[in-house]
Amino acid sequence: MVAVLVVAFFLFAGLYTDVLWYDQLGFLNVLTTQWAARVVLFLIGFVAMAIPVWGSIQIAYRTRPVYAKLNSQLDRYQEVFEPLRRLAMYGIPVVLGIFGGVSASTRWEMPLMWLNRTEFGQTDPQFGFDVSFYVFDLPMLRSIVGFASAVVLLSGLLVIATNYLYGAIRISGREVVIAKAARIQIAVTAGLYLLLQAASIWLDQYATLTDSEGLITGASYTDVHATIPGRTILAAIAAVVAILFIVTAIIGRWRLPLIGTALLIISSLIIGSLYPWIVQRFTVDPSARSLEAPYIERNIDMTRDAYGVADLEEIPYEATTNAEPGALRADAETTASIRLMDPAVIAPAYRQLEQFRQYYGFPSDLDVDRYEIDGSSQDAIVAVRDLDLSGLGDAASWYNSHIVYTHGYGLVAAAGNQRSADGQPVFLQSGIPSTGSLGDFEPRVYFGESSPDYSIVGAPKDAKPVELDYPGSGDDQSQKQTTFAGDGGPALDNAFKKLVYALKFQSEQIIFSDAVNDDSQILYDRDPIQRVNKVAPYLTLDSDTYPTVVDGRIVWVVDGYTTTDQHPYSKKQSMSETIADAQGQTPPIAFDDVNYIRNSVKATVDAYDGTVTLYAWDAEDPLIQTWQKIFPASIHPMSEMSGELMAHVRYPEDLFKMQRAVLGRYHIEDPAAFYSREDAWTTPNDPTAGTNEARLQPPYYLTMQMPGQDAPSYSLYSTFIPETKGGESRNVLRGYLAVDSDAGSEAGKRADTYGKLRLLTLPEEDNVPGPGQVQNTFDSDPTVGRELNILQQGQSKVLNGNLLTVPVGGGLLYVQPVYVQSSGGTSYPLLQKVLVAFGEDIAFENTLDTALDVLFGGDSGASAGDGEVEPVEPGTEPEQPGDGEGDGGETAPPAGDVDTQVAKLLDEAKAAIDDKQAALAEGDFAAYGEADARLAEIVAELIELTGE
To answer: Coiled-coil intervals in this record (predicted)?
Structure first.
């Protein structure tokens, strides 16, 4: 009993902390609705399984022949079983009921969606049902039939076993003798099972519209003319055989149902398999192109609609390949916005120049955002200076890790199209304290992608702050402390809450530490995607979240999708496999097929207090309307979004990747051409990846003006090349897909152009080089190779940045930044050169401005905005930071100054040690933690200074 009570208390602690977490965040109804649905479904599943099984066993036992003559073997079985009979007759139904209840409760979403279903307003072309029937009704009906079939089947098996054990079924040679009561019960059970199979076969005819076997997803010619009619006939036969079993229960003759069962089996082979094969082989295959055309057209139309690409604007693009002088004059604004800073390459520069202390960190792949600066839009590479406790080393005590070091500090932003004279990023926002062009905002980051598993913050008003806010700099080397002043986590305002969280995190210090008081809060589940996933479990979340400054706060923006794999006639594809490219790995096993997707929700997570806000971005989506009925008031209308937030939302990458994968084939609207795969496309592999890494090139955000646009806009683009044939693909451009990602800056109103997909289609006779060809040209050009060899002299290595494709000058311009990085341990990439290509011509210069002028006959007609920098000349070793992390990009001090600084730091270290000992003697753990943290910083500075 003690053990049971202990286990029960641990379970209660987990449930209670969930209640506290959801309640503090304002989403308690999400948790309680899930719990209520799971409990109700468990009870329904338990009763629906246990009662029929128990009833079947009871009937079989109570109607057993009392004076049946048993053989010796059955006598021995009864002797063993009889003492356990009562336990088995109740225990078996209970165990099966638990399995049935658990199975039902794990699928809590399906019944809730069915009860709150919303019509799509679109009918399928085969049966004329609304699409909602396939998304909501059909899965629910098939689940009910499947569960009921399992119940009846298990009941029937147990009935047969019970009757055999007690002699109601006897086998004597070839003769099987069945008592009347057993015959009636078995026949009725078999009849019920066959009725359920008839219903299952009947529902299967509708499932052909979501089957993905063969050329298309959905019912093909064979399905419509053979499979669907065949299943209708088989359902009728199964129903007739079920009636024959019921008749047998009355008249006692088994001949008719047995003949009917044999007829059903033979019919299923002939009508269900052989006939469709004959139709496919001898009718469809010889004339497939014409016979399948109407069904291919259905598949094309409904796939394009399900993936949101039905309104795609296709623009024939006669791309020129001749680089004429002044060709970029009409595209001056686009040219000035070409991004030179690669967010996947320059992360080490952020770490070296902006990390400052070893306990801060930046992600390895940065994000692209845009800000209005001096009246013009500026693409920016952004990242949060997050907390990284792995940098504390020996100072990573419980007190430091959970009380002192609680948050990151500041957002760092660099101009996407600028660089300093030596190739460093030009920061728009940087430093500690944070300064720059983004204005004043709350810089503290308590909720980030690498935040600690939990932190305990908050204190009485008159208490001395113990949280490290940020380290001192310049003449003021003293640390700045702060106390969290928001509402970011459950309050630890009584001993019981401290106990349950001590159990949750397996940490007794939560109970005994004097830093945990009645004003304390505990912050956990701090990753933005994790928080949104918990409050909106019905959403599929984008794999990338990005930080931005909105209304004086740093907020994380998370895109949420509503998806289903039950949309009729729409192509299914694995989402995780489709979005995998050079920026994300393909999972070993994927079980996330979808054939309908909408970016229905934009979510924000406040980096300071963790507040999660969900906005209905696509309020017309039937799936999100259904979930809003289930979780009322959890999603805010788009009208509540501020103008600043609207200015920083963007078209999500994962949705765009799904759409480009579909458009690789479904840009073809002619069924005959689609069947022949005459013009199928694919996304090219990333040309900057290694030779053994065949991963797709990711889409890129750029501010540019597409044909059909009046002005440049923030966009997301990708390219297409011909689909692989015979293991090889011609790496020439066939399509250029871009989507307008600028939602405008008007509060609560999305720009009309947002989400507009434009596809530039290039004629097949035009051999405009694709990314792979261009990269090969760059790598094999002797002049480029010679200059790269010069750059790689000594301790340097060359890194190729992202290869951008920009539709300017009547053609397609390729731009690739080239970085130089020292091979030392504290080095970072510096932008030194720019490669450009237009048609067959290339240029390799110090700046993009110069490269474009060289490429376009001495005058491109536009300015790229980086013409005033003076990069290091080839052969000169780029200036790199001193040894150690977080040196702020400063060069190493003269040797004479090193000794002075070391001596000063040693004195400070001795003082910090004395303070630690004094604080320990007085029992002042807050002062002890502060001195310990100061000592760790001094040691880190000594390591940086001496390199030892």
So the answer is: none
